[in-house]
Amino acid sequence: MRFAWFVIAVLAGRIAGGEETQRFMAIDTLAPKPAASDDVQACLDGLCWKPQSFEVNCEPAASEDANHQAVLRFPSPINSGNAVNDRVAVLWYQAPKDDAPGLKPAIVVVHESGSSMPIGKLFARLFAGQGVHAFLVQLPNYGLRRTGNRKPTGDQFLLAMRQGIADVRRTRDAVAALPGIDPARISLQGTSLGGFVASTTAGLDSGFDQVFIMVAGGDLYSMLQSGEREAAELRRRLEEAGFTGEKLRDLMWQVEPTRLAGRMNPDRLWLYSAEHDRVVPIASALALKKAAGLADDHHIRLPGDHVTTVVYVPVILDHVIKRIREEKP
Asked: For site-directed labelling of 114, which of 6, 35, 141, 210 has its Cα 20 to 30 A away?
């Protein structure tokens, strides 16, 4: 057993050293349970793909000044027709080395809508500092996957959301293929846009250990109608592309988190909301809570709005880390 841990430590050390690109073979473990209704099945049919094996390249960070230590690259399960965008990029924020034997937990982080992803990067860095390997997925058209300055609208928006959901789920299996990672303790965290993506992803199957959703929710159509700032901007872009009324409702329904929320384990799901959020109104969070059958003590309601709740990041971090470190019941 000691020799096995020694081998894992050597492999992990080679990756952390950033000397060369490492390659690992992974396989999709996507395994949706039977749907409870025709609507749920239709949603799954629009989001799932045929599982297959794929190669994961682990490249050293491009700059020594970067807060992440490596970048994972692998093919997206969904083809957008853009070769650059269709290669998923995941920033690996590695937990500090220690002498403790055993595999370490990991968390897949899904960022907000800001192009520089500051909140996603902040969470990833903080998780890693607490001994949890953090993997920040760059969603379609972000970061290393971006090839233009225009954000997708209309049908392209739907494609980007479908692709993002699939990419996040496949990231779980890419992470599980790495040395030093405990495949039974890979959790999922998403903020704002990332929270909506993570919510729907978590409803596909039980691939993630625990799920932490921040300033996000469900009932996307209503949120777009009443939400301000980022929500209003997305509504404007979709309206300009001809998506209004029932056409807009039908578009958002394809990736509506509440359709799959009942498939998540409410004991392993946590929702963090801002009481005075004007981007994602509290009604959106309550819609997801109800659909998921979430208990009151799994819905943390914080004072403040969509932006000012950032002051509670230390509190949220402590809560998430404690949940991850707990032994499974």
From this structure: 210
